Amino acid sequence: MMTTVARNAKTAQARDRLVERFRSAGATSYHAAIAPGPLDRTEQTMFDVLKRIDVLRETSPGKWYLREDALRDMRSREMRITVVFMALVAAGVLAGVLMAYLGR
User: Which domain holds residue 86?
Assistant: First the structure.
């Protein structure tokens, strides 16, 4: 059974492979759209996610392109979520230390 960390890493790798596939093909504009080609299960899942959040946009049946601006926005949101999570963890640790110190 795969751990959550390993699953998240695998998903991130699939996303990075998809992004690289579109970038290396030059498919970053409407007129340069491509068919993504065969995808493994994790890549297909990530492809569906990127379509849903409009990072990948379809121009005609089966032809897609990468929206770099939407990808930047997605990564910026991910970073903000990470920073907030880290701040909450740090606040929890600090609260624990203070409670232990004051409980003496």
Answer: 4-102
pLDDT digits (tens, 9 = 90+) for 44-82: 999 999 999 999 999 999 999 999 999 998 878 878 888
Per-residue b/e over 42-52, b at no fewer than 16 CB within 10 Å?
A: bbeebbebbee
**How many Cα atoms occupy the beta-carbon half-sphere of 8 within 13 Å?**
4
Q: How far apart are CA 95 and CA 86, in angstroms?
A: 14
Write the pLDDT tens digit of every residue in 2-40.
Answer: 577 667 788 889 999 999 999 999 999 999 999 999 999
- Would you state the structure tokens that stand for residue 1, as one six-digit string? 């059974």
Total domains in the chain come to 1
Could you give phi then psi for residue 51, rounded to 5 degrees? -65, -45
